[in-house]
Amino acid sequence: MFRKLSLVVLSTGLVVSCGKGNGYVGVDLSIAGKKYCREISFSQGWSYPPTDNNGLGYPTPFKEYEFREGNGLGDFLVAGSFEHVFSPPYTKSKYRVNLSSAKPIVAPIDDDTWEKATQKIMPLYRKSIFRTATTIAPDDRAEFQGKIFPRTGPLWSTPGDGSTRLSPDQQWLVLQSRTRPGRGRVYFDVFNVGTGSKLVTLEGPLNAVWPDELIYRTGWLAGRYFVIPTGDNFEGSVICDFGRGTK
Length: 247
What we know:
By secondary structure, this protein is mainly β. The chain has one domain (6-241). The chain has two helices and 17 strands. The strands form four sheets. Strands 2, 10, 11, 12, 13 and 14 form a six-stranded antiparallel beta sheet that branches. The N and C termini lie close together (9 Å).
């Protein structure tokens, strides 16, 4: 039996331009990924004032997403988060995302709902099989548990530990690569570690003001969902579910 794997590629569309800049990460769902992926959108975007309660200017974009446990399996609360020197350290807009059904449900929530889940933070899991830049494989493949996993792009996505993402149970491995430094195309190769087989490769254009930041912030949510932020202001999402009939 193989556990369910889901991939969350954050974007407002299949190829998106969002936020306050012109950056995007696109994913071509017309190929293999279309079998697994569904789009959702955050209806109110990510809003926050120019300055916090103490007059400190908020940066653009915010640091990353913060997820909190919602009501039951597949239910999460999410907001954009800043460094904790800011007050409050979250975006004004916040959402409930329910991934338990075939059609994800996304709805805005109020601050009270968010604050009640303060003790239920679910940080993204970012374990790499490359520990530092000095341990990254120089060739086009990674080795783990005695198996070889080839990457698709000619270059690793980011130096060192940002190039691979291992799931918490070590059953799934994602290799992150690109065609060239900065912009170009980006690839996410999803492997089953136990069998060594590739499940799918998602790919698309990378055109962002902070491309390394976007790729480095990928990670696992709740041990099951793989999250890829996209867009200069991290808006929307495409959710790919690999749980049905995967081997």
